[in-house]
UniProtKB/TrEMBL annotation:
Pathway: Lipid metabolism; fatty acid biosynthesis. This is 3-oxoacyl-[acyl-carrier-protein] reductase. One of its GO terms (molecular function) is quinone binding. Homotetramer. Residues 5-185 form the Ketoreductase domain. It catalyses: a (3R)-hydroxyacyl-[ACP] + NADP(+) = a 3-oxoacyl-[ACP] + NADPH + H(+). The keyword NADP applies. Belongs to the short-chain dehydrogenases/reductases (SDR) family. The active site is at Y154 (proton acceptor). NADP(+) binds at G11, G12, S13, R14, T36, N89, Y154, A155, A156, S157, K158, I187. PANTHER family: 3-OXOACYL-[ACYL-CARRIER-PROTEIN] REDUCTASE, SHORT-CHAIN DEHYDROGENASES/REDUCTASES FAMILY MEMBER.
């Protein structure tokens, strides 16, 4: 579905980002993976991606630093040429009750999740305009749509991504550039793996399908949004949550 296309995935070395990168590679896309450091997990991901016979490279960048983002974007475009797909997946959590937040807990989540998404999109938007095409996929969250106790900072950052997605879709639609968001619900990642069995069962009770989703469930939707099969879809926020927030 993506043969010959070139994609950039932030936070692509683990979890949902890794699943999306692998799904793209399986479908023929060359990949530039942006990670905060050259970790063993990141290098292992690159190795697995190249096993599909595509080109995959790792780029180290702190996405909350606009200058670093601009620099790495230029490097990626020099290496890959025209970029077709951008997936803004990188994100962090710093959970607590609002009254107990330290300033750094608020700033770090907004800086990475929201400002990082904006910085990376801005760095690649001229590439898309120049080539008169592109699919931007932003990873938001159902928490950004419905809120969640103990995650006011995270909810604000993910809700911001929703507004940003719709604004980009309106601003660049006439340039044949699409921008959509995916809002995952409870997905089985290292973070949810730390929950107790009792907590997991309580989560399942909130979900009509009665189970947690997998990173691959999100990756399947990202594949569709990156492909020509979604060429008339833009400005949408699509939930992957088993019906949790209907």
């Amino acid at each position: 579905m993506l043969k010959g296309k070139k994609a950039v995935v932030t936070g692509g070395s683990r979890g949902i980002g890794r699943a999306i990168a692998l799904k793209f590679a399986e479908n023929g896309a060359d990949l530039a993976i942006i990670a905060t450091r050259e970790s063993e997990a990141a290098l292992e991901t690159i190795k697995e991606l190249t096993s599909y016979g595509i080109t995959a490279r790792l780029y180290v960048c702190d996405i909350k630093d606009a200058d670093q983002v601009d620099s790495v974007a230029k490097e990626i475009i020099a290496d890959f040429g025209a970029i077709d797909i951008l997936v803004n997946n990188a994100g962090i959590t710093r959970d607590n009750l609002l009254a107990n937040f330290k300033t750094m807990d608020i700033d770090s989540v907004i800086d990475v999740n929201l400002k990082g998404c904006i910085y990376v999109t801005k760095a690649f938007i001229r590439n898309f305009v120049m080539h008169k095409k592109g699919s931007i996929i932003n990873i938001s969250s159902v928490v950004g749509l419905m809120g969640n106790k103990g995650q006011t900072n995270y909810a604000a950052s993910k809700a911001g991504i929703v507004g940003f997605t719709k604004a980009v879709a309106r601003e660049y639609g006439r340039k044949n550039i699409r921008c959509n968001a995916i809002a995952p619900g409870y997905i089985t990642t290292k973070m949810t793996a730390m929950l107790s069995d009792a907590q997991t069962e309580e989560m399942k009770k909130m979900i009509p399908l009665g189970k947690l989703g997998s990173p691959e469930d999100v990756a399947d939707l990202a594949l569709f949004l990156g492909s020509e099969g979604s060429k008339y879809i833009t400005g949408e926020v699509i939930k992957v949550d088993g019906g949790m927030y209907v």
